[in-house]
Structures are given as structure tokens and as C-alpha cells.
Design brief:
Length: 502
């Protein structure tokens, strides 16, 4: 029995240096996400944008969630919250006050996501879960400014209930993704990748090159499905753990790089690549440490000098020192392990509840915790089937002189022909996701606000001719089997006009 227990522990034992890389990668992705989101600060997060606060509260608000970003519809308040989030994300990368930086980054991230659920995608669920589990992980123990005040750990090996939760969470992402893909096009017909690459709204250049290869796409469909379904089992093998983890990380890196080169998925691939850094084995980390250590020491020295220069002017410095007795420390650790174990059971149940095959459904009164702390998750990427409805937007503005201009193409004359690159019409993946949600009938409430937002920003430029009407038109193009496409159908989703001047 004593020999069996260490073997069962092997799949869940992580390296402190790998956890530090997980922290750095997660913080870097949060920073990148903030930079991209900040380019649409007014459009996506203020009352002058596409989702004013009163509309959010009326149509898209969950009473169990909270958001600091809903405290005001002014861009100045949003900019302040963005700046605070960027500072805490930078502190997370550097490992300064790591536990606090993790908690505040998580709090501000879910606050930001709750402010505009119309632009949230699957990768956002994983990003907030990395921060959630990161609060319990010792990912600031090494490669951090905090670690400069501590002795080097006697061993880099670390095992606890939270490492179990981290590994299980990664497995759930891919298992649930595969199990939710229950349409024949994934497991029988092999046509799912064909339909995915038929979506011009997300098609990248490499995907365009692969698209004519029907047999290759069929093989890639089965490869994708069975990779997601079977690969996570490698994480739980109790022998030769190093090699199985290297295989898992290597396959997923190739998998997500391939997705990013063929489909426009925003930060989805970077989030997934950062999420597996905590699995890196010691053999890889020893080589990485030899390259990283001198560079980290140089950066830490510079950061320490900078930190001393700005901390001195703070009016108050608070230092709290708590002395823990051995019995209290053991009790606290046992309580933490029990809490993490209960959280893991809850999250596993939530994931199983998303599967149509699962019978023991979670009752609605039990969901408040998941919504409040945003551990709710659903990994339904291209599931149960790939969308067949494709197309492109025409923002048909009619000038006072009767001309028709396409605001989606910088005011050029309206053309009914498909653009050479539909994906190029989107500023970033957040706008692509918003446009996808714009099509759903259930979201029809959002259409006039987008239309009026477009009119307002158009008229802010005095060089633009005034418009008397704007139509948001969708050229719907349904993908058929065997490289056939239905003729595009013009659908007017919304019509609006400028408010009359007094």
C-alpha cells in the first residue's frame, strides 16, 4: 500500500518552477487581453457604446453575478479599472505580492467579463479558472519578487489537493469539448473541419489553403475529435509521468498553433497554451532555469530598484505579520485541502451537467455559487455541430444626397459581392464574437444600440457626409455539403436614423 500511494500521487505532483511559468504565462495573457480590450473601451464598456448599463440590466444580467465595471457608464471610470487591472496583472507576472495580485486580477477579470457578456468566448472561461485555482497554488514561490525574501525551497516537487484540481480542470476542458461534439459530422461523417473552414468570418490564410483538400479535412476532423477525447487520459497515468506530460504538452501546442493558423480565434490558443505550462517536468525546467536564471536576476534587480523609488512616497506602509503555531498551520492546511476538494467536486458536477448524456442534473438553487464566483463553465467549441450559416455584414448608410456607403469598408460604395477577406472586416475577435451574437433572434434587443453607435461615431468625423439612414445588413450564405454554397440572401437586421436636431 505504501508503494501504491506515491504512484497514485505521481500524476498530480507538479514542479514549483512550472507553476511559476504558469503564473507568468497567465499574467501575460491577462495583460494582452486588457490591451486588446482597451482599444474598444468606449464601444464595449460605457453607456456611449453598444451595451449601455440599463440594457445590460434589462436583458443580459444574472442577479447572482457582480461587476465593478457596472458602477459607472463613464469611460474615465472604465479606464481607471483597466489601469488597476493592468498593474495587478504586471504584479502577477513579476510575482510581487503574488497572492493579492492573483485575487485582485481574478476579481477584476470576472468583473470585466460580466460587464459585457456579448463578447465573451470559451477561452475566457479557462482564463478566469486559471486565476481561480492559482489563488490556491504556490505559483509565487520561485521566479518571483516575493521569493527574494525566502530561502530556496528544499524540493521543487509539490503535491496537494489544488494540484489535483488543476490537472482535473485541464482534462475536463478537452473531455467535455469532445463529449459535447455529439453530431455525426464529428465522429461519423468527418465533415466538421470542412464546415469550420467554410466559415469565412473566421477563415485564416492557411485554412484557405487546406480547404480544397477534402480527404485531409476528413482526417483532421477525426484527429481533432479523438485528440480531445483521448489525450487527457495521459495526465492520469501513474508511470513514466515525465514522458506522458511532454507528449500531452507537445501535442496540445501543435494542436492550438494549428487552430490559430487556420481559424481566427483571438486569444483562445494563447490561453490554452499558457494553461498547460504547469505540467512541464523537471528535466525541461532544469535546462530552462539555466537560461532563465541570469536574466530573471537582472530583471528582478531593476524592478527592486524601481519599486523602492516609488514605494517611499506612499503616505502609509502597512506590514502585517502573523505568527502561526504548528497546530494552527496544520489545521489551516487541512481546511484549505477540504475546501479545494469540495470546490473540485462542485466544478466536476457543473461540467458533467453540461453533457446531454448526464442524468443527475444540478438543481437551479445550487448554481448561485457557480455564477457568483464565475466557476461556471461550458466547453462547447464547435459543439454539438459547426454552424452552417455564414455570411458577411454590410453597413449600408444612405447619405442625405441619396448615395449608399458601406461603413464596414470605410465609406466605400455599397457592393453586394463578398469581400476577398471577410475576417478582415473585424477589428479583433471581440467584435467578431459580438457580430456572431448579433445574428441570434434572442439577442435582437442589442441591434438598435449597435446601429445608433455606428451612426454616432460616423458623424463624429466632420469629413464624413451626413447620413439620413443606416441599415445593418447581413448577407446570409448557408454552407451545403460537397463544397456547395447556397446563394447569399440579404437580411436587414436593423434600421436606424439620426435623432432630429432641435
Amino acid at each position: 500500500m505504501r508503494r501504491l500511494l506515491p504512484a497514485l500521487q505521481n500524476p498530480f505532483e507538479l514542479d514549483l518552477r512550472a507553476l511559476a511559468l504558469l503564473r507568468i504565462g497567465t499574467g501575460a495573457v491577462v495583460l494582452t487581453d486588457l490591451i486588446i480590450r482597451s482599444t474598444d473601451l468606449v464601444a464595449h464598456y460605457t453607456n456611449l457604446g453598444v451595451l449601455p448599463l440599463h440594457v445590460l440590466y434589462q436583458y443580459g444580467w444574472n442577479p447572482y453575478v457582480f461587476s465593478l465595471h457596472t458602477s459607472s457608464g463613464l469611460w474615465q471610470v472604465q479606464a481607471l479599472l483597466f489601469a488597476l487591472a493592468a498593474l495587478t496583472a504586471a504584479a502577477l507576472v513579476l510575482g510581487y505580492k503574488t497572492r493579492w495580485a492573483t485575487a485582485i486580477s481574478w476579481l477584476l477579470l470576472i468583473s470585466l467579463q460580466n460587464r459585457n457578456p456579448l463578447i465573451v468566448q470559451g477561452g475566457d472561461d479557462l482564463l478566469r479558472m486559471l486565476l481561480f485555482w492559482g489563488f490556491f497554488l504556490p505559483w509565487g514561490r520561485v521566479y518571483s519578487l516575493d521569493s527574494r525574501k525566502q530561502a530556496a525551497p528544499g524540493s521543487y516537487r509539490y503535491f496537494s489537493m489544488v494540484t489535483v484540481a488543476y490537472v482535473v480542470q485541464l482534462a475536463l476542458v478537452y473531455w467535455c469539448t469532445a463529449l459535447l461534439k455529439n453530431s455525426p459530422e464529428w465522429s461519423q461523417d468527418g465533415t466538421a473541419i470542412y464546415y469550420a473552414l467554410s466559415l469565412d468570418q473566421i477563415l485564416m490564410p492557411l485554412g484557405r489553403l487546406l480547404y480544397p483538400q477534402a480527404e485531409l479535412l476528413r482526417g483532421l476532423t477525426f484527429l481533432t475529435y479523438y485528440t480531445e477525447l483521448l489525450l487527457p487520459f495521459l495526465l492520469f497515468l501513474p508511470f513514466r509521468t515525465t514522458w506522458w506530460r511532454l507528449l500531452f504538452v507537445g501535442v496540445l501546442y501543435a494542436f492550438h498553433l494549428g487552430i490559430s493558423l487556420t481559424l481566427f480565434v483571438g486569444l483562445f490558443y494563447l490561453i490554452n497554451m499558457a494553461s498547460v505550462l504547469g505540467l512541464l517536468p523537471a528535466q525541461v525546467l532544469y535546462k530552462l532555469a539555466a537560461w532563465l536564471h541570469p536574466r530573471w536576476a537582472q530583471l528582478a534587480a531593476r524592478t527592486h530598484t524601481w519599486r523602492r523609488s516609488w514605494v517611499t512616497w506612499l503616505p502609509v506602509r502597512i506590514n502585517v505579520h502573523v505568527q502561526w503555531y504548528p497546530g494552527s498551520r496544520r489545521l489551516l492546511r487541512a481546511g484549505r485541502e477540504a475546501a479545494v476538494g469540495a470546490l473540485l467536486v462542485y466544478i466536476c458536477w457543473w461540467n458533467l451537467d453540461t453533457l446531454p448524456q448526464f442524468r443527475w442534473k444540478m438543481t437551479e438553487p445550487m448554481r448561485w455559487f457557480g455564477y457568483m464566483f464565475r466557476v461556471d463553465q461550458r466547453w462547447g467549441m464547435f459543439a454539438p455541430a459547426v454552424f452552417k450559416d455564414d455570411g458577411w455584414f454590410i453597413l449600408d448608410g444612405t447619405t442625405t444626397a441619396g448615395q449608399h456607403l458601406d461603413l464596414n469598408r470605410e465609406g466605400q460604395p455599397v457592393e453586394a459581392t463578398k469581400p476577398a477577406s471577410v475576417v478582415a472586416l473585424f477589428k479583433n475577435d471581440r467584435w467578431r464574437k459580438y457580430s456572431e451574437n448579433y445574428l441570434f433572434v434572442a439577442n435582437s434587443y442589442m441591434r438598435p444600440y449597435y446601429c445608433n453607435y455606428l451612426l454616432r461615431i460616423w458623424h463624429e468625423n466632420p469629413a464624413h457626409p451626413p447620413l439620413r439612414q443606416l441599415e445593418v445588413v447581413y448577407m446570409k450564405e448557408v454552407t451545403l455539403p460537397n463544397y456547395r454554397v447556397a446563394p447569399p440572401v440579404r437580411e436587414v437586421l436593423c434600421t436606424c436614423a439620426p435623432a432630429p436636431r432641435p
